[in-house]
Amino acid sequence: MNWIEQVTILDLLVKGLIVGVVVSAPLGPVGVLCIQRTLNKGRWYGFVTGLGASLSDISYALLTGYGMSFMDQFLTKNQILLQIIGSIMLFLFGVYTFRSNPVQSIRPLSSTPGSYLHNFITAFFVTLSNPLIIFLFIGLFARLSFVMPGSPVGFQLVGYIAIVLGALSWWFGITYFVNKVRTRFNLRGIWMLNRIIGVIVMVLSVAGVIYTFLGNSLY
After folding, report:
1. CA 186 to chain centre
2. Three-state SS for 132?
3. Which long-range contacts (CB under 8 A, 24 or more apart) does 111-114 make?
4. Measured between alpha carbons, how far is 100 from 82 in angstroms, rounded to an integer?
5. Residues 6 or more apart from 62 whose CB is under 8 A from it?
6. What are the tens digits of pLDDT across the range 61-109?
7. pTM of the entire structure?
8. What residues contact residue 44 under an 8 Å CB cut-off, 6+ apart?
9. How many Cβ atoms from other residues are within 10 Å of residue 163's Cβ?
10. Cβ distance 95 to 200 under 8 Å?
């Protein structure tokens, strides 16, 4: 039986949720913007900011998946190699996240909150202006064997919807958390949160390589 045929809808949902969370979690410019707006304008302004970022992310996810779908035979024959390469790329991304200082992305906010639509659009274009996110998607798709050549369109659609749900879950959770601790959340909190995220990504990528060499699947 082909390995593609062994993947269930539940597998794809879990993988999609993981991709959505991992892509959204690092506090780059749009993450800091989301926290800023949550603290200064209110939780739902922060969440709408995350919603705009999610739309941009899924655009890049579709572009990445479409490009990789042309590599049918290579993906099928080199699954283990791609998982290892994907784990290495994720580890490097974790190191970058750990070493980066998101506080430097803080920018002055306007005195007026603006409409939800304005906050949504600005977040969309801030995220869209960083095409390097494609490399993160390549690493995640390779590590998780997310792109499945020859699979039905409806099956693939479930995976991409799961990515959106994972991203929205992250933005919903982070805005809820920041809103709850707004009186105690400061610049050091942003810096520490980003370092924790970086460590988690590095640990998971190392565990993924180990499990691959052992012939098992971590995720």
Report:
1. 24
2. coil
3. 113/41, 113/42, 113/45
4. 27
5. 160
6. 998 888 877 776 666 677 777 778 888 888 888 888 888 776 665 565 5
7. 0.80
8. 116, 175
9. 28
10. no
Residue 89, CA atoms < 13 Å, CB-side half-sphere: 21
Q: Which of 184, 171, 158, 61 is nearest to 119 (CA)?
A: 171
Tokens standing for residue 107: 């920018």
For residue range 190-205, list pLDDT tens digits in order.
Answer: 778 888 888 888 888 8
Burial of 92 (0-12, 13-18, 19+ CB in 10 A): middle
Give buried/exposed letters for 194-210 (b at 16+ CB in 10 A, else e): bbebbeebbebbeebbe
Distance CA 103, CA 105 (A): 5
